[in-house]
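Complex record, two chains
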Amino acid sequence: DAGITQSPRYKITETGRQVTLMCHQTWSHSYMFWYRQDLGHGLRLIYYSAAADITDKGEVPDGYVVSRSKTENFPLTLESATRSQTSVYFCASSERGPVHTGELFFGEGSRLTVL
Amino acid sequence: TQLLEQSPQFLSIQEGENLTVYCNSSSVFSSLQWYRQEPGEGPVLLVTVVTGGEVKKLKRLTFQFGDARKDSSLHITAAQPGDTGLYLCAGEVSNAGKSTFGDGTTLTVKP
């Protein structure tokens, strides 16, 4: 099915462990994004990518690593998870250009709990 | 510093009432979007506004972009329980390719 899918949907881990959240889109959108959503903070941008092999930091990048070797995939890695990284993580994609509004298409989210 | 300020943060009204949600900033946006999010799901786009002074209507929802492109409002007429959700505004500065979100307005419409 076309769309943007995230996995896992739910993850419980322990402090200090490495965790990777996966994101896959089938639209061939050039842009992909990772946001985290916490109560009282709305959506905050972690990292984004304008194309394969091009990534850039957002508002809250510390403690996270991303890669984009293929256009359709944009994994987010927490190298050493901390309790403050407990959150709901949303992946999104969009296309740019004269006929595009920059609409963000979101996945269903990955709820991460760090104990 | 929050780039986009949304107000009110919470709104609880009765079915049939009207309401307005505001999104304000000191920055000028090349475009601004409104999203609606339901529990357990990702946000879904309602509208994009790009021109200062622009007004867009989507059934009972009216969106306005300020003349200076620094603020926006969402007005809902005759709210229904199905309008319940989190409303988020998101702005893009200078076609930077990334959007900044406001903290959202949680709307509850009681039958």
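Note: The first strand of chain B starts at residue 5 and ends at 7.
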